[in-house]
């Protein structure tokens, strides 16, 4: 759980955000947490008030994961992702049912509460929202020219003259987030296009003629310590975004 200073920061930020409804605001909180019990027996959704912001959680995982086998690591990542989802719900002041997916693996809403999770290497991300939402996180790494051509068109790459090594992952995470929110997989990639790079944290896309605003956050790494960088993206739905960066002690 966040400490008292974090709570005060959220409270004061909410007051400021009320005055700036048109521009998504971003607040970065950091903290540590330990894994709770499972979600078994969680009560039905309870919403104590109006949604003022989304609280996507980015969780940095313990260093023991790289030594696990593929199936073991997948199981641990899933557990941490569900924990991050629970924390996002707590920050949103809601209590969800146990999250479920349909037979195609698409997250299913319960009592008007939507959710999305993602994981990449040593990080997981999760978010709860009152509307269909998508979140994605990716480790920044080298990619081939062929993969770049598959992810975005020449017109999309021409939106900025800058040779930004993170641009590929800004595009990739934004498109993944939109496709998740739309309830579609990568089969919809050809119909999803970046139309505007607003700034370092906001990017606009279209999917089947519908416009989507995506907010992003970069988690810097440390090359000397072998720690990679990550980019996360979440569909905003017009809400302010308060990113929660949390570390799990080993």
Folded structure, characterized:
The protein has 5 helices and 14 strands. By secondary structure, it is α+β, with helices and mostly antiparallel strands. It has one domain (4-247). Residues 1-26 and 31-49 have low confidence and may be disordered.
Topology at a glance:
Elements: H1 4-18, E1 29-32, E2 53-54, E3 57-60, H2 70-91, E4 100-101, E5 107-108, E6 114-120, E7 123-129, E8 135-139, H3 145-151, H4 154-157, H5 167-181, E9 192-197, E10 202-207, E11 210-219, E12 230-235, E13 240-241, E14 244-247
Parallel strand pairs: 1-14, 2-13, 3-14
Antiparallel strand pairs: 3-7, 4-5, 6-7, 8-12, 9-10, 10-11, 11-12
Summarize this structure as a short list of keywords or feature phrases.
disordered N terminus, 27% strand, five-stranded mixed β-sheet, alpha+beta
Low-confidence stretches: 1-26, 31-49
Query: What is the radius of gyration computed over CA atoms, rounded to a whole number of angstroms?
Result: 18 Å
Mean pLDDT: 79
| Shape annotation | globular
Q: Could you give the distance between the termini?
A: 17 Å
Please, how many helices?
5
Give the percentage of residues in beta strands: 25-35%
Spatially, the strands of the biggest sheet line up as: 1-14-3-7-6
Please summarize what this structure is.
The chain is of the alpha+beta class and 250 residues long. Helix content is 25%, strand content 27%. The protein has helices spanning 4-18, 70-91, 145-151, 154-157, 167-181; strands at 29-32, 53-54, 57-60, 100-101, 107-108, 114-120, 123-129, 135-139, 192-197, 202-207, 210-219, 230-235, 240-241, 244-247.
């Amino acid at each position: 759980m966040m400490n008292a200073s974090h709570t005060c920061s959220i409270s004061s930020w909410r007051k400021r955000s009320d005055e700036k409804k048109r521009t998504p605001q971003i607040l970065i909180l950091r903290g540590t947490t330990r894994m709770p019990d499972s979600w078994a027996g969680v009560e039905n959704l309870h919403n104590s008030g109006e949604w003022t912001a989304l609280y996507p959680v980015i969780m940095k995982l313990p260093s023991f994961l790289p030594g696990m086998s593929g199936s073991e690591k997948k199981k641990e990542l899933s557990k941490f992702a569900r924990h991050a989802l629970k924390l996002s719900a707590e920050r949103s002041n809601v209590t969800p049912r146990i999250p479920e997916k349909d037979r195609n693996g698409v997250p299913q809403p319960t009592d008007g509460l939507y959710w999305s999770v993602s994981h990449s290497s040593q990080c997981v991300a999760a978010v709860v929202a009152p509307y269909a939402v998508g979140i994605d996180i990716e480790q920044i790494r080298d990619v081939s020219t062929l993969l770049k051509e598959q992810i975005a068109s020449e017109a999309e790459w021409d939106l900025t003259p800058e040779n930004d090594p993170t641009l590929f992952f800004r595009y990739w995470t934004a498109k993944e987030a939109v496709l998740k929110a739309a309830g579609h997989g990568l089969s919809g990639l050809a119909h999803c296009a970046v139309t505007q790079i607003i700034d370092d944290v906001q990017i606009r896309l279209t999917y089947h003629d519908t416009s989507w605003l995506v907010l992003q956050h970069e988690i810097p790494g440390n090359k000397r310590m072998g720690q990679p960088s990550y980019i996360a993206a979440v569909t905003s739905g017009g809400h302010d975004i308060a990113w929660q960066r949390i570390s799990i002690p080993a």
